[in-house]
Amino acid sequence: MTENGEEQREAAQTAPHLWKISSVAILGAFLAQMDATIVNVSLSSLALELHTTLSNIQWVTSGYLLALALTLPLSGWLVDRIGLKAVYLWSFAAFTLTSALCGLAWSANSLIGFRILQGVSGGLLAPMAQLLVVRAAKDRMTRVLSFAAMPVLLAPLLGPTIAGALLHFASWRWLFLVNLPFGALAFTLAALFLPQDRHERRPRRLDLIGLGLLSPSIVLFLFGSERLAAPAGLAALTLSALLFGVFLWWARKRKDEAIVDLRLFKDRFFSAAVGATFLSQGVSFAGQMLVPAFLMRVADLSPGGTGLLLAAQGLGMMISYPLVGSLVERLGNRLVSVGGALTSLAGTLPFIYLSGHGPAHTLIAGALFVRGMGLSCIGIPSISAAYVSVKRENLPMATTTLNIVMRMGGPTLTTICATFLGWRLTASATAPVSTAYGAAFVLLCGFHLVLCAAAMRLPRRAGRASAQPRPASAETGNGG
Q1: Which of 12, 115, 194, 395 is the most buried (most CB within 10 A)?
Q2: Residue 183: its H or E element
Q3: Do residues 115 and 63 touch, judged by C-beta distance below 8 A?
Q4: What does each C-alpha distance from 75 to 80, 116, 402, 403, 442 come to in angstroms?
């Protein structure tokens, strides 16, 4: 039998197994995203029901997100210690249990406390789901990841509808209790379909000092980036930078015993992929901050009208996401990622024109649609390039690194753009507000250009050949 025929036979045998594993992983990521979305859009109702202020109940969301970030650095160590399947099952069990506790909360403070506990387990679900897909998919990683992104993309769209129905027909407690039947189903499917991976464990001592430096650094950064205008926010960012600097020194000293092995970055393709992932998250989140603010303040649209226009970006993403895998297989990681970066730039440039010439709803919708299509073509080629540039035994560490970068990319560029916008609004108090927004969109387009440059450093094609052990400086099998 020819080599090509052998590969087709192997693909036919593994496809059902692959899609079973992927479906279980997607369900976990979808539930975690849906839970966060449902709660986010229900804060006003929760404040009313629990007789507290909106600023206090906001910690139901903030506490969850900070706890989620706190556990990210642990994910790789836990997989090495007890295995991927065990971590996933424990995370799902804890997520379902804490959902029940949230539903039984008797006050705002108890709900906040239980949500923090839920965030500890929820913080592991997304990276574990990602690692499950990567391990199972192998050289079909980009195709599977592109489909896996669709349910997670739908969660923010379905969340407000589900939250509205639950609050209309039932108690607020069902915002959390609804997770119980789905959590039980997902846990059962994971126990049945996920393969045993105990043979892949590599138990190592927990780097407590590194964890004590990195986790608080991430939490303080996220806390500070949300409160930059307040003295506490600036202090948090300063302390975060100090802790992160000490962590880098410590991790270089500890090498493979560190909570995050910085030697992964010696591979130039991994470094390029991490950089592109960071920037793609950054331009996406910064745009999500700038565009709605522009539409409401400059275009004078209502929140409802703003939401309708923003749906164009989501539609663009939904159309292009399923195509990313096949595009990467035909054109390679570099071309697809660079094409996505240039397309998203093309969808952002019109806002500079609109800032100076007045809003045009048709142009805004078209630009957002193009921007959405472009953004969806950057992340998956970058992530898959990062994974195939490391050995299989280093996948848990690579997952930890990628998820930390993805968590920090958005707040970093959003904070920079928001600070710049605030400075322009203050410095040009006599000029039209649209002038400040035009300058902010110029800055955002500058970040898009940097993203294009980072995507140019990705391998042309991150295929099976590049997944083999090789020197750090070597090219991929199909050229770099």
Answers
A1: 115
A2: helix 179-193
A3: yes
A4: 9, 17, 11, 10, 37
